[in-house]
Amino acid sequence: MIGSELEQNGWQQGSLFSDADATLVCTNMDVTINEPFVLIVASQSCDIANNNLELDPHVEVYAARLIDKPNGNYLHNKNARLLHTKFIQRLPGADMSAEKHIEIKAFEKLFVPKTLLQGLSPTTDRQMQEYDVRNFADWLAARYSRPALPTAFNNRIDAADPRGTLRDKAKKANNLLSGMYVEILPFAELKDIERYQVNLLGTVPADYEGDLATAEAALTKHADILRAANMDVTQRLVREDEISLALIRRFKRFYYDDLSYRTAAPLPVEVTG
Question: Domain of life, per the record (predicted)?
């Protein structure tokens, strides 16, 4: 029962490979990945434990690049194509552990046959914390579940900021926000003479200890983009633990990069034809 064996050996979503096992798996699959990298399990834990190889023959794994420091625009699931996150590396000596930052690209994934993982276990020297595993899972889901906003709404932003100047300024101020969401009223294709009413919701982590006024100023830069597009905007900044499920269900996550890929920006490798 191969799925049960993998579960017993500790494989679950967010598990990391040792360097030796990562090299072994890549060699057996005839895959070359530029170093330094780590392999992270993306498959949902129940799928890993599934014993039916006809239904679940593979474990989905992402190759993550080690980076010196994260870019705030790619933290907290802000970009559906690129994620900056971290894991904890155990160290010898008094320091005991350190945070290691990584970059994960949406197209750098492997479908590893479960049979290749038999006899292997995830490393205990590297572990993702629960928040980072959940954030990783949310990022994976966003590849398919992120909302499609009204075309007229997107076009108005493009027309008001054709070179992306305002968006670039907003992104530079974006490090403090963990997420940005919009409620668009009406959620419809409006005529040119009609105006969108937009509620803009910015979030910071529940344990955020920085200056809220600075985070509010970052959110204002995003609101200014919508106002430049002739929209009526109300903005609100909250900690993640201050919003209810009922409230967040009214809002849709807002990804500026989806606007960029609709226009003249080059498409990433995974979607070029």
Answer: Bacteria
**Structure token digits, residue 14:** 């967010």
Residues ≥6 apart with Cβ < 8 Å to 50: 3, 56
Per-residue pLDDT tens over the stretch 121-156? 999 999 999 989 998 998 998 777 777 889 999 999
> By the 8 A CB rule, do 47 and 225 touch?
no
* Domain boundary assignment for the chain: 2-145, 151-271
Reported CATH class of domain 151-271: alpha beta
- Which pTM was predicted? 0.71
> Cα 88–211–222 angle (5° rounding)?
95
Which phi and psi (to 5°) does residue 157 adopt?
-65, -45
Instruction: Give residue 192's identity as a one-letter amino acid code.
Output: D
Structure token pair of residue 254: 């807002």
Q: What share of the chain is helix, strand, coil (3-state, %, to 5)?
A: 35, 25, 35
